[in-house]
Amino acid sequence: MIARKAGPLAGECAAPGDKSISHRALIFGALADGVSTVSGLLEGDDVLRTAAAMRALGAEIEREGDGWRVRGGPWRSPDQRLYFGNSGTGARLVMGAVAGAGVAAAFDGDKSLRARPMGRVLEPLRMMGLAATARDSRLPVSIEAGERLKAVSCKLAKPSAQVKSAILLAALGADGVTKVHEPQLCRDHTERMLSAFGANLSFEPDGEAGRFISLEGGQRLRPADLDVPGDPSSAAFPVAAAVITPGADIVIKNVLVNPLRIGFYETLRDMGADIAFENQRESCGEPVADIRARHSLLHGVDVPAARAPSMIDEYPILSVVAAFANGETKMSGLEELRVKESDRVATTENGLAANGVDVQSGPDWLRVIGDGSPPAGGARVKVEHDHRIAMSFLVMGLAAGAAVEIDDGAMIATSFPGFGETMSALGADIAAA
Questions:
Q1: Catalytic residue chosen out of the listed positions 227, 231, 313, 386
Q2: Concatenated DSSP letters of 139-164
């Protein structure tokens, strides 16, 4: 695919449904006793893999009109391996749910997912009594059916919503009260959705930055009706495009603005971006808003490492924005990016350098230096089968000195089906190369 300069971006669009909430809506609906409905579900590859896994575990999941119908209940051991493609979120959360349900299941994924670490999830589940085998703490993983799990108290070594969620899902089927110590807050969609499905949780503060979460085992979930808001990580791409494109003024409707998910937008504001959250309201226990973004003159900033959990997926697109800013933008606390769909520090650095950007990196940091003018562009970027890298460099091409090409755009459907069409409707020039 290739992206070229076009006229000013203008108009309104919708971001696809939030991927994190979409995964959870299907898993929680499959665990609940009865029928749940889900509207606004992200119908990307990752989420559809989770839907297939839920069906294999015994849930009935059907698309009805513009929404989805999920009939849950007790799970059964599937007669085939659960295949999650490239979805780390789906695999890790379902591991926790399977452990709590007490059934046996085998997990696998594509080459990229097989390279990603699963030990961080398996270790606390084994502490709870789970029997599981894995290849070097990576997929494929086999979970054995066994006796009821035991509640534990555990401290998250690093901020990880996936690990925390796997433990809480397993805790639903454990004897006793499981307590998770979260020294630094990370995405709280699982806690919010547990409450929406009728579970009781309690919270205790831990200083200024953390908390303890307690969940008693043996609770059965009640069905719920959910409306999935737009994904702020997906909305980041049209927002970034507007901020760097002269004359742009766009609105992205109905976007999740959970305080633990908006680090990217806070950082853009720190850089001088003209961004506003309009029509703020609540949907299914989550704050949502319409995001207005306009072209802005930007300056470099030092992004605090403590902000990483709230914007971990947005660093590639932030790096592209930083290339248009005046001065140095330093991003720290990025070690998690090394084990995403690609090594996102390396792929981002390589793509920026190829397009004439002054960029440097270290084990857990990235530094981008701009002079306030558009970077040269003109390169063909190898995206390493990573959807966020692909979209980031297509956005760069909309305002760089020369068009930017990516070697593969097929995987963009993982998180943003219709990305090209959405951007084109706003006035972007993105096409097949």
A1: 313
A2: EEEEE---SPEE--EEE-SS--HHHH
The C-alpha angle 76, 80, 83, rounded to 5 degrees, equals 105
Pairing of strands 153-155, 177-182: parallel
Q: Is the pLDDT assigned to residue 410 strictly greater than 90?
A: yes
The CA angle 292-294-299, to the nearest 5 degrees, is 120
274 given a catalytic annotation: no
Tell whether 283 and 257 lie within a shared domain. yes
Tokens 């808003």 locate to: 289
* Domains held by the chain: number: 2
Question: Same domain for 316 and 213?
Answer: no
> Tokens 């695919």 correspond to what residue?
1
Residue 44 and residue 136 share a domain: yes
Closest CA to 98 of 79, 119, 78: 78
Handedness of CA 49, 53, 56, 60 (dihedral sign): negative
Question: What is the extent of the structural domain holding 399?
Answer: 2-17+229-431
CATH of the domain at 411: 3.65.10.10
Crossing angle of helices 315-324 and 263-270, rounded to 10°? 10
Final residue of a domain: which of 203, 227, 251? 227
Domain boundary residue among 227, 248, 273? 227
Are 119 and 203 in the same domain? yes
**200 and 67 fall within a common domain:** yes
According to the per-residue pLDDT averaged within each range, which of 29-33, 45-49, 280-284 is highest? 29-33
pLDDT at 360: 97
Q: How far apart are CA 404 and CA 377, in angstroms?
A: 6
Q: Are residues 307 and 219 in the same domain?
A: no
CA distance 148 to 164: 19
Regarding whether 243 and 182 lie in a shared domain, the answer is: no
* Distance from C-alpha of 275 to C-alpha of 399, rounded to nearest angstrom: 18
pLDDT of residue 6: 83
Asked if residue 118 lies in contact with residue 141, where contact means CB atoms within 8 angstroms, the answer is yes
- Contacts (Cβ under 8 Å, ≥6 apart) of 284: 192, 196, 224, 226, 227, 228, 229
- CA separation for the pair 235, 315 (Å, rounded): 14
